[in-house]
Amino acid sequence: xxxxxxxxxxxxxxxxxSRSLTNILAVAILVAIFIVLTSIMNAYADxxxxxxxxxxxxxxxxxxxxxxxxxxxxxIQLPFGKGIFSQEATxxxxxLPHVKESSRALVLWRYDKGKFVTIEGFEPGSFTxxxxxxxxxxxxxxxxxxxxxxxxxxxxxxxxxxxAGDTLQLGNTAFEVIGVLGVxxxxxxxxxxxxxxxxxxxxxxxxxxxxxLYLRLDSLSSENTVRAEINGVDKNxxxxxxxxxxxxxSNYLDxxxxxxxxxxxxxxxxxxLILFQVNAASLMERRKDIGILQTVGWTRGNISTQVxxxxxxxxxxxxILGIVISALTLAxxxxxxxQARISQGLGNDLTTLSAPLQLSGIAAGxxxxxxxxxxxxLSFFLARKIAGMKPSVNLRNI
Length: 398
Hints:
The chain is α+β, with helices and mostly antiparallel strands. The chain is built from 13 helices and 13 strands. The longest helix has about 35 residues, at about 15-55. The radius of gyration is 32 Å and the shape is elongated.
């Protein structure tokens, strides 16, 4: 059994400071590059699903038409280009095999005296209704069956000086404000000004249908199947999900996934070349020392164990330094922002999605094992090769 000589290890690490520092910095820089790159791409992936995360939906379905399918009632109308699903169509979509839960809504626009307001009629007893209720910062949530009651978004409330207990006029109907929501701090999909019961929204527009469905799926892997089935129910259905937002990001994630392995291989190759060159040069310098160790009884295994131990310590220190550099870099950047098209009855304007940059523990652990395997393998190979030479050859003045 080969034992590591710790005093000798410390002496070698401190005696050849430039060599040790070069190894440590090489590992640290490459670790930092890989972790920062991986964290950025993970943040892109998180940003894609942010609009759906807090509202609790995996998919949002709307109907796309050339012109609104319902007549305008006063100043209340459907968003331009959006149509109405019939009760039958929404029932069919809700009954699809991979749809776990659904919530129906009617999104409206109101133009009145130069003011533009967005209204969402929702089902208070649904999962989206529960989410909206949880976001109430003052007042109370809307309860199922309540008529002519409204909750308003807090920035809208502040701009117009509204609070719980005030009255809103929508069309020919007065609505009592019962609660204020912090919506825009929670979900960029649900950024609506006024929330009312879907039955009240239908009465304002004069319809019995719905313009929007929130769906929860049994698995995100079922998304393509559900998308095809919804198109079978209504060919004009406009389906939004994480993958549709990804498409609007110019397929950044597809590119990353396609070339992730190639990038990793390039980083690994660079790391291997640097470690090979530095360690080879270091061991050539130490051939005389190795020859002396051979003459005092150190075996090939003893020498290989000692060299591998030194490289292991350098790799560990380099990895820790790389983690520190990565953490500082990610903290200085803070977050990434991407622009994507998230249509929720508000046209096709670009919406900015932001996600914080976080150090990926899984990626760090995987890269540590890979780095350690490369450094130990290279050092073991080189040490065995030199330790296998005769002492007289190693003692020769190189």
